Amino acid sequence: MGDDDGGCCPRMDLFRSEAMQLVQLIIPIESAHLTVSYLGDLGLIQFKDLNAEKSPFQRTYAAQIKRCGEMARKLRYFKDQMTKAGFSPSARSMIEVDIDLDDLEIKLGELEAELVEVNANSEKLQRAYSELVEYKLVLEKAGEFFYSAQDDAAAQHRELEVTHEDQSSITSPLLLEQEMAVDPSKQVKLGFVSGLVPRDKSMAFERILFRATRGNVFLKQSVVSEPVTDPISGEKVEKNVFVIFYSGERARNKIMKICDAFGANRYPFAEEHSKQAQAITEVSGRISELKTTIDVGLLQRDNLLKTISNQFEQWNLLVRKEKAIYHTLNMLSLDVTKKCLVAEGWSPVFATNQLHDALQRAAFDSNSQVGAILQVLHTKESPPTYFRTNKVTTAFQEIVDAYGREKNMPMQSKSEVVARLYGVAKYQEANPGVYTIVTFPFLFAVMFGDWGHGICILLATLYLIIREKKLSSQKLGDIMEMTFGGRYVILFMSLFSIYTGLIYNEFFSVPFELFGPSAYACRDISCRDSTTAGLIKVRRTYPFGVDPVWHGSRSELPFLNSLKMKMSILLGVAQMNLGIILSYFNGLFFRSNVNIWFQFIPQMIFLNSLFGYLSVLIIVKWCTGSKADLYHVMIYMFLSPTDDLGENQLFSGQKTLQIVLLLLALVAVPWMLLPKPFILKKQHQERHQGQSYQPLHSADESLEVEVHHDSHGHEEFEFSEVFVHQLIHTIEFVLGAVSNTASYLRLWALSLAHSELSSVFYEKVLLLAWGYNNILILVVGIIVFVCATVGVLLVMETLSAFLHALRLHWVEFQNKFYEGDGYKFYPFSFALVTDEDE
């Protein structure tokens, strides 16, 4: 939070955004770089782009940004290489040294060239090594083919000779003699191709070969047991060694094309046994030499990457800072004649002295003869919205701000309701984030009331908070990142859930007598726990929360339904009244008497004449124990306001009061609708009739912004638009008073659903498993109970209650006062510079 202003009470920084001012800086060129650097360290000024009409390439410092971009590319290349090699950038540099950007550019260029050369050599060597490994496999496997074929041929030849000697009679086949007497010069010479093909393509490879050659090839394959590194892709692939025998040059050409198409690597193979053995010996020697060379190259690369990793974070931070500085300098206007840069930007009023100090230090450290000049500009432009938050309040403020992030979506992709989303608070309007810190976790807990489940969520959240320093420096998944960012929101949600769980007296749906014994006891022995018949009050009322005797009784559901439904209405009316009261403080702050008299007052009258009165009836019924039907009272208050109430009368004079309240509600509608447009029209005519100038800070300035939603020049006043806008606003409020109150009944519905689900899991899983008196069934039952509790109640129900609480704040609460048409303060700060910033 911010600093105190002094006095008895500290200033509430979150209720109103910080007072902002538009400042102009006149900076000498020789100290401009250092000045912007110091302002980036300070992080309290949001620069305006004074060169918006220029393209990025026409700006003054385009060349420097290009240099920084090139250095950032080299650093990304280094990071990719370190990731592949298993290195991580050192969290802190071994030696903190000041390095000039020019020296860093030269050093990065040298390191990149060296690393590229090392990688290129390593890639060539690795490819040659992989080819040799494959070649060796071909020599070994194909050699086995030829050895087995030669042995079979020799055995068959001996068998034919023996058969010819034994069968020399006249009955011996003549064709066999012709076969053995064939001229060797007329035998067909078969060629062969050997290599490796990926195993997943081997079947298709074989079919295509058969079809292309019409079966005039012989294919022999052998499976390689271990995956081999492919020389081209560098990935581990399961392959088969193949040998294809063919006849003719045309068949050979077809085989070569098919091998190329299937990515089959071909290798030469000698038929002679001696040459095969010699080739295997030579390949084995070359593999050993290449292995040694590759290991040396990898060691050299690892040493280079280790050197880079020690300084990587420092270099990366320097390049990002320099790039951000030059981006900012490109937003400044260059005054060539005066040798200076002119900057404009928004800064908080409290930061004026800090800005002066930063400018003076920059002028001194850069040895500039002339210091930078800071002056405040007076403008009617709407300033940005800036709340000083800490790690606890930031998440709650994000809940408020997040409702407007869909505004940039194209209109055709959104529904009519979503098109009216809120966003960042208007400059210095009342901030709902202050109340969200309490109301959001409380409304969540009303729907999630179980102190056993609350303790489970609390323990998980405490783990995130205790390890927040370590987790904040790690890259988490999307869901985990979101959960970690909202850890303090979840902490408050769990604490409030424990509180409401104690009120509901539910611990995993089981009641406990924590605050004393029950106020009721059995009248006689025949009284059973499953019914309230026979129960009498023997002690004073249970001191805190729901009496445990209600749980399990026949009256439990009607009693808790009535309690939670009425409680939901009371909470809803209270929160909506808070929203309308905040609209009063907005009108008071912006000096808009029109909004106070013709918006705040009639809205308070209308809402409380109907639903405020209903809330009073609920409290009176609780206090008196009356059996009056409140549904009947409210319905006939509209249908027959003059009829007697009979047994539904809660107090004397109720009928007269209802008639008065109904008349007030009817009067409040035209009160909201008619006067405001005519008063705005009259004020506009008085403001612009015979006046050329207007005071800078007038009482009606906020009113003018409200009417025209613009701050430039004198706009025309369109009475029809203002009247239609007021008509829509009035109808929306009148209908919304009913629908918003009904919407708060979701507190009752989800609370009941959570309680019943918890009861079902406990009774139908855990108690049922316990009743079997079997250890195995009990263990299974406990596992199912834990999984159901965690998966359904602690995850799905938590998310459901979170979303419903979010809706109640965004729609039912904030639409009573929150305009949300501001824009966020994004200062130039090195703390916000990330790897993704370009």
From TrEMBL:
Gene Ontology MF: a single term: proton-transporting ATPase activity, rotational mechanism
UniProt KW keywords: Coiled coil, Hydrogen ion transport, Ion transport, Membrane, Transmembrane, Transmembrane helix, Transport
Pfam family, one: V_ATPase_I
Topology class, membrane: Multi-pass membrane protein
The keyword DNA-binding appears for this protein: no
GO cellular component assignments: vacuolar proton-transporting V-type ATPase, V0 domain
InterPro entries, alphabetized: V-ATPase_116kDa_su (IPR002490), V-type_ATPase_116kDa_su_euka (IPR026028)
Chain ranges passing through the membrane: 442-466, 487-504, 567-585, 597-620, 656-674, 775-796
Intracellular or extracellular location(s): Membrane
Keyword Transmembrane helix: yes
Coiled coil (residue ranges): 94-128
Similarity field: Belongs to the V-ATPase 116 kDa subunit family.
Protein name, UniProt field: V-type proton ATPase subunit a
Native organism taxonomy: Eukaryota, Viridiplantae, Streptophyta, Embryophyta, Tracheophyta
